[in-house]
Amino acid sequence: MNLDSIFNPKSVAIIGASTEVGSVGNDIVKNLTTQGYTGKVFPVNPKATKLYGLKCYPDVLSIPEKVDLAIIAVPASIVTTVMHEVAKKKVKGAIVITAGFKEAGQPERELELSEICRKNNIALIGPNCLGVINPAIKLNASFAATMPPAGGVAFLSQSGALCTAVIDYAQKLEIGFSKFVSVGNKALVDETDLIEYLANDPETKVIALYVEQLKDAGKIIHAVRKLIHGPNPKPVIAIKSGKTLAGASASASHTGALAGNDAAYEALFKQAGIIRAYSTNELFDYLRVFTHNQLPVGNRVAIITNAGGPGVLATDEVIDSGLSLAQITAASQKKLTAVLPAWANFHNPFDILGDAKAKRYEATLKIILADKQVDSVLVILTPQTMTEIETTAKAIINCKKKTKKPIVVNFMGGRLVTEAVRTMRSDQISTLQFPEQAARSLAMLTKFAGQQKQKSTKFNFTDINKKAVTKIFTDAQNRGQKALPEALALPVLAAYKFPLPKYYIVQNETEAEAAVKKINGRVALKIVSPDILHKSDIGGIALNVEPHEVKQKFHTLIKTVHKNAPTADLKGILVMEMLHVPSSAEFILGASKDPGLGAAVMVGLGGIFVEIFKDVSFGLLPLTKENAAQMVADLKANEIICGARGQKHLDGKSLVESIGRLAQLLTDFPQIKEIDINPLVILQEGQGVKALDARIILE
């Protein structure tokens, strides 16, 4: 697909151009003819002769010249007919403004539209979108009323209405845009395609996303990681709506119940290196800081303030955000004594006192910026009677022009600081409303700079038996069985070399006694039934059974299950070796499929209380060793692995390996809808793990 035909067309046809003022088809033509676009514009309307001084054509095929981009704003029922004509005209870019497709219960119509475009190599934006804007060439191929100022931010949004609000608000903040795209239903071109295009766009410095739903996590992760680690790294900042999953059907397994939609997106953003903004305000904070600063070389921040309280607030946020307070050199300390009063604070945060005027700010800022042990600076000003607000702002501007180090500014207040803030914004200084916001945004800038140094190591397993699992799943499919209980799930794990205790499936008391003799120790008895997923809920488990108790416990277990689940189809009892390890912990490992993103792997504190404590973290395929290690590190229960309260260290490395083996299983068999391994017992360091129970649900 040629996205240049979308963003840099030399000629545009508006199919559905309207003579009705205020209509979508009229506004698009008006925007293209009145906002500075110098390319050729061809209105298409069989009932009109002229529109905004331009000749109207009855259809796109009647246009005598080449058309690069077609904007379609006709009724949904005839869009595909029009698109066939666009394809016949050999147009290579199309924007379908019209609604009435998948979002309106017409997925077949949308599929037909995308197939026409795919077959004819037409880059398609939409349908059901606001359009596209490229301020650099004054192209407003949308029905947004305003042309945003040119700048370095590419904004991609699933909400057209949000686009218009962002354009309006960004002008106040002096944020300019390289591209503006309302992606709509994404029938063909999606965010990943646009990110790959914008990676090579010289006008784009930052990519911002408003996300409602994404597809294909692997594709997104690859595109963003390639961008971050490429020769011209650019940050991708996203705000995601719909954190809750109200109305979603409950899932049958533990993992499905815990893997809420937002958890999958949180994992996606973390793995890909996408910076997540949790509010619109935070998104604009990040955009200002990223567009107006170069990347820092380290995480050492210096804070300059004329008030102690805001300095302390900034310091707390700096530490909480993973940054460190810069410790300046002795030489810089000595220089500060020449410009600051004796009662000022010569240590970070640098409190230069409430009577600080512009010269004191400027002198201090120059010394701090010159210090080799400072990577970035946060400047705070509170308006006091002697404060030179405007002059201080100009001093900061002068200092910023002479340094490559990031400077983020917080002039606290309202009316008194408004003009100074406006002055700094017009000179590309990042100004934020409160010190905590400034510190947090600076932390995001620093975090992005560090991502370029992160390793990415793939798992490589050569000991798995894929054929064995293929047979198990094929046999289940032939039986029409989708839910694979423990008795069928454990062989799947064994094929992928998950360590398991000894176990046997028996049909009667005699077989149970024979199994116990082979195990030669205490055992667990577990009911085997395709109808029972959570055995403990109906009394289907007996633990720590002594060899002489097996006969009695077998009988009791069968009786209890018949009482609590009378219709369940019982297939026997699984006799499993009991583990006796003094230092160990029960974890859960599992996965469920997000409808758009794919398989989300989950790890966390396990056992029967998994859904109560909910100490879990998620990762999306493909998973690297570093991703898996970070999933474990994100758990509160990681303190148990690391030997909390004097306990012995557990085998965290084997847990990370188990995450990798599960990821490989999910990659090899995408028909797995859900899987739980619970509990997965983590043994002492160097002793590995043991999977004690599992269940699998196939699509």
Automatic annotation (TrEMBL):
Coiled-coil zones: none
One annotated GO molecular function: acetate-CoA ligase (ADP-forming) activity
Source domain of life is: Bacteria
Q: Which Gene3D superfamilies match?
A: ATP-grasp fold, A domain (3.30.1490.20), ATP-grasp fold, B domain (3.30.470.20), NAD(P)-binding Rossmann-like Domain (3.40.50.720), Succinyl-CoA synthetase domains (3.40.50.261)
The UniProt keyword set, sorted, is:
ATP-binding, Ligase, Nucleotide-binding
Quick check: keyword Iron in the entry? no
Which residues belong to any copy of the CoA-binding domain? 6-101
Under the heading InterPro entries, the entry gives: Acyl-CoA_Synth/Transferase, ATP_grasp_subdomain_1, CoA-bd, Ligase_CoA_dom, NAD(P)-bd_dom_sf, Succ_CoA_lig_flav_dom, Succinyl-CoA_synth-like
Q: Does the keyword Nucleotide-binding apply?
A: yes
Which family does the record claim for this protein?
In the N-terminal section; belongs to the acetate CoA ligase alpha subunit family.
- What is the protein's name according to its record? CoA-binding domain protein
Organism per entry = Candidatus Magasanikbacteria bacterium GW2011_GWC2_34_16
